[in-house]
Amino acid sequence: MSGSLGIGLIGTGYMGKTHALAYRNVHAVMGGLPPVRLKTLCDTPFAKAEEMAAQFGFEAASDDWRSLLTDPEIHIVSVTTPNKLHKEMALELIAAGKHVWCEKPMALTLEDAAEMEAAARTAGVVTLTGYNYVKNPVFKLAQELIAECVIGTPVHFRGWVDEDYQADPDLPWTWRARIEDAGLGTLGDLGCHLVSMAYGLLGPIESLIGDMQTVHATRPMPDGSGHGEVENEDTASALVRFANGVQGSLSTSRSAWGRKNRLAFEVHGSKGMICFDQERMNELQLYENSGPKAQQGFKTILAGPEHAPYGHFCPAAGHQLGFNDLKVIEAAELLGAIDESRSAYPDFTAALEFEKVIHAIAESARTGARITIGG
Amino acid sequence: MSGSLGIGLIGTGYMGKTHALAYRNVHAVMGGLPPVRLKTLCDTPFAKAEEMAAQFGFEAASDDWRSLLTDPEIHIVSVTTPNKLHKEMALELIAAGKHVWCEKPMALTLEDAAEMEAAARTAGVVTLTGYNYVKNPVFKLAQELIAECVIGTPVHFRGWVDEDYQADPDLPWTWRARIEDAGLGTLGDLGCHLVSMAYGLLGPIESLIGDMQTVHATRPMPDGSGHGEVENEDTASALVRFANGVQGSLSTSRSAWGRKNRLAFEVHGSKGMICFDQERMNELQLYENSGPKAQQGFKTILAGPEHAPYGHFCPAAGHQLGFNDLKVIEAAELLGAIDESRSAYPDFTAALEFEKVIHAIAESARTGARITIGG
Amino acid sequence: MSGSLGIGLIGTGYMGKTHALAYRNVHAVMGGLPPVRLKTLCDTPFAKAEEMAAQFGFEAASDDWRSLLTDPEIHIVSVTTPNKLHKEMALELIAAGKHVWCEKPMALTLEDAAEMEAAARTAGVVTLTGYNYVKNPVFKLAQELIAECVIGTPVHFRGWVDEDYQADPDLPWTWRARIEDAGLGTLGDLGCHLVSMAYGLLGPIESLIGDMQTVHATRPMPDGSGHGEVENEDTASALVRFANGVQGSLSTSRSAWGRKNRLAFEVHGSKGMICFDQERMNELQLYENSGPKAQQGFKTILAGPEHAPYGHFCPAAGHQLGFNDLKVIEAAELLGAIDESRSAYPDFTAALEFEKVIHAIAESARTGARITIGG
Amino acid sequence: MSGSLGIGLIGTGYMGKTHALAYRNVHAVMGGLPPVRLKTLCDTPFAKAEEMAAQFGFEAASDDWRSLLTDPEIHIVSVTTPNKLHKEMALELIAAGKHVWCEKPMALTLEDAAEMEAAARTAGVVTLTGYNYVKNPVFKLAQELIAECVIGTPVHFRGWVDEDYQADPDLPWTWRARIEDAGLGTLGDLGCHLVSMAYGLLGPIESLIGDMQTVHATRPMPDGSGHGEVENEDTASALVRFANGVQGSLSTSRSAWGRKNRLAFEVHGSKGMICFDQERMNELQLYENSGPKAQQGFKTILAGPEHAPYGHFCPAAGHQLGFNDLKVIEAAELLGAIDESRSAYPDFTAALEFEKVIHAIAESARTGARITIGG
């Protein structure tokens, strides 16, 4: 088994499963990557870890994530625990020389994220953050279309990311409503994904003005003991200025009925426009001011093998990638980076930039002032 | 011909024609309204007025709009001239006791609009401003759905209005680029329509922060003499707070390639969501958190005779109203208001509120400060 | 009033109103056409005719359509009565030398339609049939795209036309269910429109095999006296072969819940595809196998002034024509034909070809045999 | 390793890879299934088999598929070779007591398929055919909506399946164009999928009339030696009658530019309608004639955890399954059937019914006669 990369995975929930599935299939899908060995799955209680290790195909189960630190056969650790736990785990894993694939956001506070980023940078391990949507082949197409000036020079940007998991006012209060436990609300859960896409399309955001709101200010306590306060935001919006001079706006809500994963953007350019909506993740909209005026219109481009790495999943266009396939592309990025001794994208350094923006939106919303994003 | 309302129309361009067509057909479409008499059409030069009077079916042509002031057989005058001319015309028409249907925006500056509003209010004539989109039967449906709590309590709002008539950087400079002649840019042309819809859905905006940008800073002079400066904005956006406590955002661009009339909004509610896009003006999207979860989804409601006054145009659903039909509904509102001695909606007083918002966005964009909209 | 064309209109219902509105506005919209004079509106009882004449702006009302035959000031007569009455009216009007705009289908039987066509052809009057959908500017765009080989050579065709006005099994029985009164069912109401579009795109249909079905075999009698038989078809479909060698299929239903006016087609070509749906009548879908593969996709072209005669209604693209505007374009075709002493399209001769197809579908459905359409 | 099911896979192409990926992940996704062991991967030449065995994670490679027959550790064999080879392989595998997951269509001729079906039925092994689209959670939702009478009684059906892999007339001739090698054209590649969906929704088809066409009659030989004949059909259509009395139509093309996987259907019911398009495979359209008329419309239901087994892939709605996930659901069906000693769906017996239909369409197209599908 020499040459293979041993995997530790902390967490067996929503994201934990996507990591497990990605590790299982990345080599078979992509070829040409170092093989992986599913070594240890960590969760609590132990019975849970054991059950899921059997299901996911890990060799071992553990209820002590620190056991991964000293296991020489483990090279990569995925951190998919609640965000509050990321920092401690990541710092110790980095210190132990492990490569780390950490779900987003990196941490509850910008200070914690910065500490993680500094540690990773210093240690020289490979890190990857779970900004899966920038791995979509049609997102890469969007980037290429911009790079190739197909829509000319970008002149304006709009982005939204909405879900409805907190739309129902009658949903009970949970720890997710408490800043100490959850940090930001929709900005941390959803907004940072949008920022990752904005960066990928237009580069850094220089300054912004934000506003935010807790639309359901209290929620019934699950034990029937009255109502608990919702401390973090349900909606947030910002007017942004990119470093390249483009203006734009961002908006996010976790209380948007009917939206299940509406992570959408428009890039307005001097010669055309690109639009995307993750709820139709295999489609990219492109308008070009070219050809006969009478025949101009928005084109719906269906993902296909012309849009790498779609072809690794399926040789036929329009057959659709799914969400879990994006995690496979992430895993390939991680393994490739390790194999080639390069940094992965987006690593902690890149992710820190995204997370600066969501915290700046929150700060601006609190103070009313325009915030300049630190370099 | 006693009992009929005599019409004067100033302007024979884009909007002038829509007014003429609306006057011609409103009685035939709606029934039950005072008959109209197409009396005098004004434009310059006289030959133009004469030609279009023949085409539109006016009894007389004139190159002197002031001739309308003293014509006792003219009761209503439509003002569809360039915005710069609205104020002078409206003030004199009001002073002459004419009812006035004035295209939007009312004026280049808020001060001028306020002066027009005060004059109209004092004179007691009926006024109507050309905010045609709020006359769409499916917009009225949206208002009713909100009023009936079908989507619960509104919690968030988003709106956009985009066209691409200034998207091409190579388009020559025109007077529309000069503030003295044109006033605001996209905010005046497009943004005020969006505000009219936001008001119709959620009521007054209390305060806002805005940003705006001239994305094509100069344009080639038509005579080849270098480049002229574009003084007004191509894009503008704002974070708004409604008086009812809801937050939201507005954004507009006249340089958005591919958008031809994308006047769109989302109203997020505590029980559902409503979405609309004028480019598919016969459709309203509705999501309700009701019924089996497995069967929930956004519904596309096609305009039909259940959505008054659609049935006056066509007894069969889904057969589509067009833009010009909206002007017929406006005309019906005007004639009905005169007939019933009530105010029309949106009259100068209502329109002034919309126009306060676009000027506030521009002011906030210039100063960086949050603007509170005056009562 | 010399030089103007006097209009008689028989019928004040759904189609009658569309004709009245079209006559009222066609000159104002289009310019350059002979003026019209709304002379006499016929309906029964007389009070109804009188009321609607006032609303629609006709000079006179009558409950005797034959009064039109001898009125020398009436040049054109619109026939918008129940289909059963078309033949008698058209034949007498033609014999009286009137130009005739007759709603579709021309008649209940093919024999009657053929008799009407022969009479019109012999008499040399101008006729026009109410196939409004082929007047859509984006339908003309589709025809031009085919003519210019933008999608190469057509290789396949599919078309559908569905509504839901007979979808509810509990709707009461009406005369529309009786062949003697109504003739064909969905084929006559809807199917012939689809055929008109198929012809306009690909030319004559040479032969076909059809099937049809009455899905709601009986309906409750309105007087509560049990159930009445539905004699004509709710659905009908056909496999067709065009004279140019292309195969295709047609299908129609008047019992298709949710479809309000889904008159849709696909033209598959050797280099691309064109798709259309009347429920989004301002859009045409175009796919071209050209340019980079990675950027190919279906384009949504929004109707605009590049698509004549859209610009006569509105100078701005994407602002939407409506159903009634299509009738204005029909009226312009009629007036232009009379003015230029040419035939209008589709006249009785063209329409007879469309109606041969729907009767052939019904005949094939009854006999099971392939039907060759007579020349 | 006792208790696990050993897998042999023949073929490493498009479908071969999907089977490999499905086997790799089905246990991890679903839980509660017998574990699988990826034993032997067969392809030629051996180097290819060896390379792909390494990539896909099989223990052994072979260029002799018959080696699987006698391997006692292999319990299931996937047959993903060219269709021409299915019969021989399946018959020998069945005779050897292996469970068989065979790609569709089962065979080039109906006789061969019938022979395979009889062998499987007699032998009592579990078989599964690769009709992946009926495994889509939203397809199951469609079935449930019909079963629960949400759209009332079905009254009409329409289905299409189009791709464009043979749309370009300049594509070179291949063996796929020769009946001896490939059997049917688009009916075998695509049409049988549509039939599987029609059956799943409305049950057996009783009789039909078909038509078909080779739109590109010859293709350039790859060696430049002139043109070769295309023997099988590019398009095929049929008017069908289901055993339950419903009429409908089917149509398929492999030469439909822009269509990448447009496998779409409409089920018209007495109370509503259901529509689906595989190019947006995570969406189901539902119209119900219920609630206020003014609020009726087609609903777009996004796949989510309410639609089993979506939740096994992702706990969050709207995050999208992909094509390869459908193969995982197929694999789960196969393993579950073996585990529970029941037949899988669709097994060879079910698939034979689907394939009867495509051959009947071809036969009817050749003879012109209505074909009754044998029991």
From TrEMBL, chains A, B, C, D:
The Gfo/Idh/MocA-like oxidoreductase N-terminal domain, residue ranges: 6-130
InterPro entries reported in the protein's UniProt record: Gfo/Idh/MocA-like_OxRdtase_N, Gfo/Idh/MocA_oxidrdct_glycsds, GFO_IDH_MocA-like_dom, NAD(P)-bd_dom_sf
GO function term, MF aspect, one: 1,5-anhydro-D-fructose reductase (1,5-anhydro-D-mannitol-forming) activity
Organism of this sequence: Shimia marina
Domain GFO/IDH/MocA-like oxidoreductase as annotated: residue spans: 139-274
Highest taxon of source: Bacteria
Enzyme class label: oxidoreductase
Protein name per its UniProtKB record: 1,5-anhydro-D-fructose reductase
Keyword entries, A-Z: Oxidoreductase
Record flagged with keyword Coiled coil: no
Known EC number: 1.1.1.292
Span of the signal peptide: none
Keyword Oxidoreductase carried by entry: yes
Lineage: Bacteria, Pseudomonadati, Pseudomonadota, Alphaproteobacteria, Rhodobacterales
